[in-house]
Amino acid sequence: METLQTVMTPLLLTLRIALVTTFFVxxxxxxxxxxxxxxxxxxxxxxxxxxxxxxxxxxxxTGYLLVILLGKNGAIGSKLLLLGWNGILFTWQAAxxxxxxxxxxxxxxxxxxxxxAVDRSVEEASSILGRSELETALFITLPLAKKGILAGCxxxxxxxxxxxxxxxMVAGNIPGKTSTMSLSIYNxxxxxxxxxxxxxxxxxxxxxxxxxxxxxxxxxR
Amino acid sequence: xxxxxIKKLILPIIAAVICLGIVVFLAASPETEEExxxxxxxxxxxxxxxxxxxIAEEFEAAxxxxxxxxxxxxxxxxxxxxxGGAPIDVFASASESHMDILSEKGLIEERSRKDxxxxxxxxxxxxxxxxSGTYPASLxxxxxxxxxKIAIGNPETAPVGKYTEQALEETGxxxxxxxxxILAENVKQVLTYVExxxxxxxxxxxxxxxxxxxxxxxxxxxxxxxxxxxxxIAVLSESGNKETAQEFxxxxxGQQGQEILEGYGFGITKI
Lengths: 221, 271
Hints:
Chain A is mainly alpha-helical. Helices cover 79% and strands 0% of the residues of chain A. The radius of gyration of chain A is 20 Å and the shape is globular. Chain B has helices spanning 3-28, 49-62, 75-83, 96-104, 127-132, 159-171, 187-195, 206-211, 242-253, 255-263, and strands spanning 38-45, 66-73, 90-92, 114-119, 121-126, 150-153, 181-184, 201-205, 217-223, 229-235. In chain B, α2 packs antiparallel against α10 and α3 (75-83) runs parallel beside α4.
């Protein structure tokens, strides 16, 4: 029974973090991607670079920057403290924020190119027929870019499941509270418990295979 | 707005509401706090994972109503978390240097700081080289031709590497074996290289040698290290629960804590 718990606790935690992350990445990622693909505005390249940055930075550095931002004395952390939110660091929500920051670029990169590739004449037709930009975006552009957006979601989900470095910094590695699958594997390895490590790796590989299979199924349709 | 458009709008709205519902449900479900125990968070060096898990359990048993949350990572990572303002009550470090940095910044309660245990540096070799009879059993043996690769921790990131470098430099052998050295990120990686037979020798802490797959390697030499490899512990200044934190420190340095640590190979000076 104890083994079951040592696997289930990090598994459920990881899935919860990954699902919450994917939801927010999908909503915000699509908005950002749409703006980047369709609009021209001052400082666009800067916005693009800013979103992409966590993809290039080592996750530990991203994590460290987040610790500085979200910590008690941090720019965001101190504001949260004023709102009565005592210490976001070392909670599963912090892990979700870390996963969000590192997986957002995957969504934005994939979705931006998909939205950019939608045939302009179709959108123009919609606009000529009297549809507003929002309507065109919701009912023409985004449905046509569906595949790319879905692919972005899957990539983000996978990245969130496997997140390690930034999570370790921001959420800590507290068994039963913030130790995700990746962190639990690290713990098992660290303590020489190779049986548990192998079991956890197996479960993680299984999740990844299911994710990939699901993507392929979606792609076929 | 004509009817078809409304129909078209309905589906995405329903989907969005369901998604939001799931998220709110997921977000709300985990924290079911029935009782309100005193919680302290202890950041401990990764090498202390097993020992501190046991100690925390014993401490909780000895003090009902307290809950110890353990946070494990490399000492450097833990130090950066504390500097960033993470809500930690006790820090147990694998090296004095990280504690010194926090001390300089006034982030620890100086009076609570104590060295609570120590470790030993050992040389390990793969089991099959023991069987074949040619294996290094001293630092001098490392210069022999049969030793092609030696794994040591990266002195920049792993304290174990710093101690290894010091020992090698004292014997004057460091330059001679330069071409054989493989740098590993941490002590576990050194041990993995030895376990898999990728290297002929590696330098690890005694406690790590105790916790690995012992049938794959043997300790052949205890390395004399100038400065003792000591582990400091301290209550943090920002702790919201200094009383319980101090009690935990006392527990670690007390008899029960020391016995558990010794059980994992800490604080033992000879082979």
